[in-house]
Design goal:
- By secondary structure, the chain is an alpha/beta fold.
- It has one domain: Rossmann fold, CATH 3.40.50.
- It has a 6-stranded parallel sheet with strand order 2-1-3-4-5-6, with helices on both faces.
- α1 packs parallel to α3, α4 runs parallel beside α6 and α6 runs parallel beside α7.
- The N and C termini lie far apart (44 Å).
- The model has no long low-confidence stretch (mean pLDDT 94).
Length: 263
């Protein structure tokens, strides 16, 4: 019960394959109260209401690119909790170019800007909203999910790579301000390729997944293990960890070559 008494907002649960779904379940198991949120279009596609019933949590729709929606979400969450938020999970990512199969050398720039807004700038907007409304508790914790393509080239990941690099930069920059003012910590978790509904939409994802699994000494980290890591970062056990990009990938990020791949 390491989150007993804590209150948090979980962005991005779509279905039971989602990392955010697993995080929500684990938060409640560890004693937290949560509010669930996703964009209205994602809510129509997914099964978030099942999760809400299971977790006894309200669902407050919000387009994370809309400051008006985010303000409504944060204000209603504070009202529901009867106090400030202790933790937030940002698990949001979308590329129209990837969905429509546009190659990296022929991207639609309007779609690219949409990708950046949804996948990265929404993280800044969320933190700025919490800041302006003074809605996050001292020693609170904010976590965003990212991927190693922010540092290394994975061609089929397209401009999502730049989105994740921007997300990680926002975590460091806003982490300074939130840490200095309120002792709030901001971190990103760089997760293994994970069999989520969104992940499997990437071209060649199965081969991508298998390669990382063979390269990593411990294999790919599953969504459930990522949820455990998020819980640790939300808890008071990590009060002095901030502005970090934390690899949760079975060792993939440190490997050069694994004989298993040659075999």
């Amino acid at each position: 019960m390491i989150l007993k008494g804590k209150k948090g907002i979980v962005f991005g649960a779509l279905d039971n394959q989602s990392i955010a779904w697993k995080v929500a379940e684990r938060c409640v198991e560890e004693g937290a109260q949560i509010v669930l949120t996703n964009a209205p279009v994602a809510m129509r596609m997914g099964e978030i209401n099942k999760l809400a019933e299971q977790c006894k949590a309200p669902v407050i729709p919000a387009d994370a690119t809309s400051l008006e929606d985010l303000e409504n979400l944060v204000q209603k969450s504070v009202e529901h909790f009867g106090g400030k938020v202790d933790f937030v999970l940002h698990s949001i990512g979308m590329s129209v170019n990837v969905r429509k199969g546009k190659p990296y050398t022929d991207l639609n720039y309007d779609w690219m800007q949409k990708t950046f807004d949804v996948s990265a700038i929404s993280f800044h907007k969320t933190m700025q909203t919490l800041w302006k409304l003074d809605a996050i508790s001292d020693w609170g914790s904010i976590v965003g999910l990212t991927y190693i393509a922010a540092q290394r080239v994975f061609p089929d990941y397209s401009e999502m790579a730049e989105s994740k690099a921007l997300l990680e930069s926002f975590a460091r920059s806003f982490g300074y301000h939130l840490g200095t003012a309120k002792n709030v910590r901001v971190n990103t978790i760089s997760q293994s390729p994970t069999m989520t509904t969104a992940g499997q939409g990437i071209k060649g994802f199965q081969e991508f997944f298998d390669y990382a699994d063979k390269m990593s000494p411990l294999g790919n980290a599953p969504a459930e293990a990522c949820a455990d890591y998020c819980i640790a970062l939300f808890s008071d056990l990590t009060r002095y960890v901030t502005m970090q990009n934390l690899f949760h990938d079975g060792g993939f990020s440190t490997m050069g070559m694994n004989p298993a791949l040659v075999q």
